Amino acid sequence: MIRPSAGVLVHAAPGLASPSGPDAWFTRVDRFVNRELSWLEFSRRLLDLADDDRTPLLEQITFLVIFAEGLDEFFQVRVAGLEDQVAAGMRTRSPDGMSPGEQLEAITARAGGLVDEAGRIFGRLLAALADAGVVLTDWHTLDQADQEYLADHYERTILPILTPLAVTHGHPFPYISNLSLNLVVRVRNPRTGEVRMARVKVPPLLPRFVPLPDGHRYVPVEQVIAAHLESIFPAMAILEHHVFRVTRNADLSVDEDEAGDLLAAVELELHRRRFGQAVRLEASSAIPADLLEMLVAEVDVPEENVYLTDVVLDLAGLRSLLALAPASLALPATTPVPSARFAGGADLFAVLDHEDVLVHHPYESFTASVEAFVVRAAVDPDVLAIKQTLYRTGEDSPIVAALIRASQAGKQVTAVVELQARFDEQANIAWARALEEAGVQVDYGLVTLKTHAKITLVVRRSGDHITRYCHIGSGNYNSVTARTYEDLGLFTSDPAVGADLGELFNLLTGSGDPPSFRRLVVSPVSTRSYLMEAIGAEERAGSGGRIVLKTNGLTDPPVIDALYRASQAGVSIDLIVRGRCCLRPGVPGLSDGIRVRSIVGRHLEHSRIFRFGGVGGRPLRVAIGSPDLMERNLDRRIEVIVPVDNPGLQERLVGILDGALADEANSWAVQPDGSSVRHDQVRDGVPGFSVQDRFRAQALESLRLRRETTPFETVPSPTEPVTPEPPRRRWWQRLFPRS
Description:
Blueprint: H1 28-31, H2 35-50, H3 57-87, H4 100-131, E1 135-136, H5 144-158, E2 164-167, E3 181-188, E4 195-201, E5 209-211, E6 217-220, H6 221-226, E7 237-248, H7 262-273, E8 278-284, H8 289-299, E9 306-309, H9 319-322, H10 348-354, E10 357-361, H11 367-379, E11 383-390, H12 398-408, E12 412-417, H13 425-437, E13 441-443, E14 450-451, E15 454-462, E16 465-473, E17 485-492, H14 495-509, E18 521-523, H15 527-541, E19 546-551, H16 557-568, E20 572-577, E21 594-599, E22 604-605, E23 608-613, E24 620-625, H17 631-635, E25 637-644, H18 647-662, E26 667-670, E27 676-678, E28 682-683, E29 686-687, H19 691-709, H20 726-735
Parallel strand pairs: 1-6, 8-9, 11-12, 12-13, 14-25, 17-22, 19-20, 20-21
Antiparallel strand pairs: 2-4, 3-4, 3-7, 5-6, 7-8, 10-17, 11-15, 15-16, 16-17, 18-25, 19-23, 21-26, 23-24, 24-25, 26-27, 28-29
Helix pairs in contact: 2-3, 2-4, 3-4, 11-12, 15-16
């Protein structure tokens, strides 16, 4: 059994010294950091925040939860994909020069150290949480009264839904579902002396932690079950029990060329996902070798992907404790404010007839801007049609409800629903059916291309002519994530943008060749060429060039090489990359002029901004949109970028970039080897500048000033009139209660 441990971050790459001549060039291995190891470095940044006592306790726990959830997904998708490549005998190397097997070895070394660190942080946070009044305790430390209380709770609410499964010659080892908590139990028949194995699944509908009567102590549910195993194995002696958890390949593999009905094909793949290949086994460290070997063999997991731990499994389950913390630990309210242009019950369409509006979430309200835009369109008698893309909408979506209402009011409503939004497939299937039942024209986009663009088109009659009102953003149409994700959206009635969106929707729902877009930059049609041309223009400007890019991921080799060439020409380049970054900054002779930073804070930095030029009298080009600088976003997805030409909005976007580059509280400097160093500036005990705190403060100050000038200002509540009818909501909850 291989026990993972901490290791080096990146693949050993020779030749990082400066090239020997003006025409020398670096090998592929030299030029790129491994994509998967770069993501693990991002996860380490999450652990840094989880272990920072200057961060509020509930935020520390939240960062630990996000780390655990992200690692689960990493194994389900990225590790699973590499395992598939190894099984298929593929020898294709990643841009950094590593084979699939070498990547798995490096992941094992790095992930093991992160898991150990997460366990240490978990123990520290539990102690701090106990000091604050929320105690996660152990069954064996409880007194008789507490144990009797839990025994009664177990008899009434847990025992009736447990189903033990024995492992015998007539009963093979049961299937272990993805990410479920389980107990492996060794029992002995006192009469015959026969020893057997059994498995007890912890039903996922049970609360992760069972409360005690005092309201501040909690016991892991698996411990309550383990303490009463004799009730489900009567007349048997319980010899030992241990907790384990299996992670499986959860990536969908839909052959859209062969799928006559994409909806049915995705539903079938969702069913198959439950039976994906095991890629990770987690177990309590006290498990004996023979039981561990049995589990490894039965679930068929690679030995190097076995993780033993001394803490509770499924750290993501700590999310349920966040809601149980006392009010004294509650985080300061971060209520978003209405956009200045849309505040005070403004007529959105009248505003857009005269100017473009840029909104910055979560500092500016998603409800009072994006939702209000769709809701207003749904009830406006002059609106003829609404067209919108839906990628991740959430469970109770006011926007979907508004689309339903608009359709019921007789408007032409089209929703392009992406069925293959990873881990949101089931929810999107349900919404697609609800929309279709309401008469909405539902489409699933183009074959082989995910629709990741965030676009809305409202067609409205204005007197004797038609006006197209548009929203183009970087974030999903999801009212829940919009409260925590940092995103941008542009509202405009620009005729060229409206015409482009109309043709793009026709392309998504119809057929034919892509049009020549007037203003929009669209993947996979023109995004790559737009970026390469813009970078090339700065390269030609040499030392007078300027590039600042804000993105969630930078992995595309041609884009990275173009940035290297621009750097060598003297261009000043700043990259703000939250997650994966395969570019090596600051390498002599390769990327001297490139700086990369990652910002990780209370709000998930999610916006994408592209800035070129604007120094030395050269024209400034700024754009926002949905794509990251990754191969999939440039070549295999429908993405939209919109150039922003309004000088005032350009200045605002440059200010957002400048603020991110000045952050000292929640930013890390990415190093040439792919590791990262936190800026972490503290002066006189006070943390350095935080761009997120600055934008929150600016939004609140803006609201205060508006209230002083218009004291009776009210913000409309657009979601209330379009709440889905109760029968439809009950249908949704009945069909997918946990989605």
